Amino acid sequence: MDRRKRFMQLIFGVLFLISMASGHHGQSLTAESEIPVLCYHNIKKQAAKITTYTISADNFESHIRELSQSGYKTVMPDDVLLHLSGKKILPPKSVMISFDDTRTEHFHIAAPILEKYGFRGVFFIMTVSIGKPGYMTGEEIQKLFKAGHAVELHTYDHQDMRKLQGRDWEIQVDKASRTIENITGKKPLYLAYPFGAWDENVAGQVRTRGIKGAFQLTGKRHPNYKEYSIRRLLVPGQWNAARMMKEMRLIFKT
User: Fold this and answer.
1) Contact 103, 42 (CB under 8 A)
2) Which of 116, 111, 70 is nearest to 94 (CA)?
3) DSSP conformation class of 114
4) 106-148, pLDDT tens digit by residue?
5) Is the dihedral of CA 104, 121, 151, 236 positive or negative?
């Protein structure tokens, strides 16, 4: 009898462990949970001045190292959109790491650091800058894409999209999208609003032009445009890894 009791206890213990491992213990994210999305701009090996938009390479790597050591895994825009629609359950420690403005250091500094920790990033491309001094070339953007990073749209030349009229939309979205598609072979389906600025008209315009989801900064998500008001945290260059983690958890309630 004691042997049978011990056997049943063993069975229940195994079943409990299986349940924990499969994520059925209340830790999986729901569709209402926000996926943390981080936003970086300039990354410098020797920064003359650290600002909101400029972080040192060493500090940037400390952020990525901390995320990795804390158990986070990177996700892509498709994952975020499927999560929002309730079609995909993501692990509790999911994060999207994004970069704006096509800077050359995104290829030479950011991508190698991400890959060192098994991460992949999302690079929002401002197409007017491609090939200019200080910015990525088409070949570098293509290599990012082939390495498993996402290459998406940040318009043609970074205008406030709330002020666009008429043919502006074709230049800022349609033409810029074709430029990226000619480089990667894949049409960009996601957009980061310049300055994080948008309104319902902007959301409607980009939706009709084939954009599946768009990212603002830290404004509130719109109940009628959830896919077009996905929040991002702009990470200032002055924040150390601990501050970044603290703010990320506070804002996204992770």
Assistant:
1) yes
2) 70
3) H
4) 999 999 999 999 999 999 999 999 999 999 999 999 999 999 9
5) negative
Phi, psi of 95 (to 5 degrees): -150, 145
Residue 165 CB contacts under 8 Å (≥ 6 apart), including other chains: none
- 131 Rama class: left (phi>0) / alpha (psi -120 to 50) / beta: left
Question: At a CB cut-off of 8 Å and minimum separation 6, what does 152 contact?
Answer: 77, 122, 123, 124, 125, 180, 188, 189, 190, 191, 192
Instruction: Single out the residue of 184, 206, 204, 208 nearest to residue 194, CA to CA.
Output: 206
- The pTM of this model reads 0.87
Query: Tokens 């410098």 — which residue?
Result: 44
11 pLDDT higher than 70: no
Query: What is the set of domains in the chain, with CATH numbers?
Result: 35-252 (3.20.20.370)
